[in-house]
Amino acid sequence: MQPNATNPDRMGNSEQSVPTIVEHLFRHESGRLVSNLARSIGLARLDLAEEAVQDALIQALRRWPFHGIPQNPTGWLAQVARNRVIDILRRQTNFEKKKEDFAHARMPELPRETDLGDDELADDQLAMIFACCHPLIPRDARIALTLKSVGGFSVEEIAKAFFAAPTAIAQRLVRAKKRIKEKGISLSLPDIEEKTGRLDTVLRVLYLIFNEGYTAHSGDRLIRRDLCAEAIRLTSLLSTRAETNGPKTQALLALLLLQAARFPGREDESGELLLLDDQDRNRWDRELIRRGLFHLGESACGDDLSEYHLQAGLASLHVTAPSVDAVDWKAVLWHYDRLLAISHSPVVALNRVVALSRIEGPAAGLQALAQIENSKALQNYYLLPSTKGDLLRRLGQPAEAAEEFKRALATGCSTPEMRFLQRRLQECSADG
Fold first, then answer.
1. Residue 111: which region, alpha, beta or left (left: phi > 0; alpha: psi -120 to 50)?
2. Bridge partners of 273?
3. Which of 233, 53, 74 is nearest to 149 (CA)?
4. Phi/psi of residue 273, each to 5°?
5. What pLDDT was estimated at residue 184?
6. What's the rounded Cα separation, in Å, for the pair 53 and 89?
7. How many CB atoms lie within 10 A of CB 229?
8. What mean pLDDT is predicted for residues 117-134?
9. pLDDT tens digits, one per residue of 107-116
């Protein structure tokens, strides 16, 4: 498939638009392309599929500014990646047989855009998730492998999601791919019983994909809507099948929809971060809120009270309150207490500090924060010093608050978050 090189309108502002489009395709479609190739050549050759897709994206960056963006960019990438695989296989032994097998393998044309309402559970990307979550792969490696192969995450992004070193994540990925080859794990949807057994890990992966999109750990954007839309799409697919639907699936879907509903209010017109107190609730997406509350109701079937139930419950308390002052903060604190009992997460404990300070004041918040601020997992988490700085600022201690905001700036976060911290630091200097 050749790009349309003769239409100047299609090229547009090539030098500026091509990198943006390629980045979007990498985030939105690379997982689908890798999954599709791996389905054809076997999961044991996952490295080859990832290499081919990466090479296709590089070729797009080189060719499209001069030859124009093709009418079907995803199809163009799929063809270039496929050709790359064939070139590599040609150099390997027994190529003729492998070439024949590959030539007859299933290679459907990929759609130009992901359809949020797609009802095909046999989607290659969903099949890849279940394959990466195979019980023979260690649990921590399953999640890392899926985020890398399906979500298009870099090793550094996965490391931040796990509060781990990049070298540790790289080792997990190597071990996971080695186990796939040793055990002959195939890229296919498991039977009903196996699928149900892998569901917890799959839900966790989808939660992490959405979480990275909800607040990007790095880069110029606060929100990556394409990652969030993909997590919602795949969770929606799970909710349409009896063997993967259930209270946890419904609760996760409710959580994702309720959180996504707040996207329009989390940034101002120039893309700057807005805290909950400053958000215009009229900008929140009422249709997503309606859908989220519906699925939250569906999740109440049975006796299961999972982390997703509690987080969705928290989200519902925020989206149904007419103002931040009208939020039932005691109910919020109750949810965080229950979450902390389930997850023992230091991040949950940090969020609980914020809720407690809303009820009992910033001094009580600082006292609670002192109990967790030495947590190893929070040492490079910018929200720890940022939260402390905010509590100190509310107590009328701008100099001490400024030091905490400086600490927060020294940790890794996205560009919009860094600008927000710099504004807070300037406010402290003005108050001092």
1. beta
2. 267
3. 53
4. -65, 135
5. 84
6. 15
7. 17
8. 66
9. 444 334 333 2
Residue of 161, 283, 178, 268 lying closest to 215 (CA atoms)? 161
Q: How many CB atoms within 10 Å of residue 315?
A: 24
CA distances from 109 to 68, 76, 78, 427 (A): 21, 10, 8, 54
Beta-bridged to residue 267, according to DSSP, are: 273
CB 248 within 8 Å of CB 304 = yes
- Taking alpha carbons only, the member of 208, 202, 206, 135 closest to residue 169 is 208
Query: Angle at the Cα of 346 (from 345 to 352), degrees rounded to 5?
Result: 95
Count of other CB atoms within 10 angstroms of residue 275: 10
**Tell me: the pLDDT tens digits for 58-109?**
888 888 887 788 888 888 888 888 888 888 877 765 555 555 565 555 444 4
Amino acid (1-letter code) at residue 210? F
Token look-up 């009418």 returns 71
267 φ, ψ to 5°? -130, 150
d(CA 417, CA 218): 9
SS (H, E, C) the chain: CCCCCCCHHHHCCHHHHHHHHHHHHHHHHHHHHHHHHHHHHCHHHHHHHHHHHHHHHHHHHHHHHHHCCCCCHHHHHHHHHHHHHHHHHHCCCCHHHHHHHHHCCCCCCCCCCCCCCCCCCCCHHHHHHHHHCCCCCCHHHHHHHHHHHCCCCCHHHHHHHHCCCHHHHHHHHHHHHHHHHHHCCCCCCCCHHHHHHHHHHHHHHHHHHHHHHHCCCCCCCCCCHHHHHHHHHHHHHHHCCCCCCCHHHHHHHHHHHHHHCCHHHHECCCCCECCHHHCCHHHCCHHHHHHHHHHHHHCCCCCCCCHHHHHHHHHHHHHCCCCCCCCCHHHHHHHHHHHHHHHCCHHHHHHHHHHHHHHHCHHHHHHHHHCCCCCHHHCCCCHHHHHHHHHHHHCCCHHHHHHHHHHHHCCCCCHHHHHHHHHHHHHHHHHC
The two structure tokens encoding residue 65? 């500014």
